[in-house]
Write a structure and sequence with these properties.
Blueprint lengths: L2 H10 L15 E3 L17 H14 L4 E4 L25 E2 L2 E4 L5 E3 L4 E9 L6 E10 L2 E8 L14 E2 L4 E4 L12 E7 L12 E2 L4 H7 L8
Parallel strand pairs: 1-2
Antiparallel strand pairs: 2-4, 3-12, 4-11, 5-10, 6-7, 6-9, 7-8, 8-11
Length: 225
Amino acid sequence: MPLSTFESFIKSLKAHPVVDASIEPSAYTPLDLSIHNLELKSVNVSSSDDLESFIWNYMKSKNAKIAYGGYLEQRGIYQRSAYFNEINPETERNIHLGLDLWIEVNTPIYAPLDGTIHSFKNNTNHGDYGPTLILKHMFNKFEFFTLYGHLSVASLLEKKVGADVRQGEQIATLGSAVVNGDYPPHLHFQIIKDMQNYKGDYPGVSNQLDLEFYKVNCPDPNWLL
């Protein structure tokens, strides 16, 4: 399916919010965690505690309950982890492919659309997703997937591959830095067109060499949310 056709299709879907639907749009604030944000120069982003303090203070200054952003954002935070870090700037994975929603630990997460459970896994590398859930969606013969990363360990309990999930159903809660890859609590939400045989995991960060492929296979989550 051409990207423009897929974009129109995704935008036509009426999605349920992935967090509490009663939170007003005015309580959301955009957050820039890119290498271009000069305020991060004074923050030790290798420390989840320091980064969390920066994010919560920023949200407080904006009188916000949720900070969001990050799609195609080039970030320096991944340099703290050998899982992402490369000497070659072309192969270093530092371009974020999902949308992040920064909000308190244990926040309930809801399915935006009807679907089934494709797969789930606890990705335990430092800087990785931690507990991760992937849903499969099928509408008008169009198949695609949504990924939910940085969840609580309890979110994966009693999950079954192939189980039906209804729009608006609670599917998870957010994990703490202890289990979520060592990040401040947040949801990583990503749309994926082709899972490429991955199960319970899919790249959420790209390098420059592969970016054009991932921009097509993982389009802007804002189209849906």
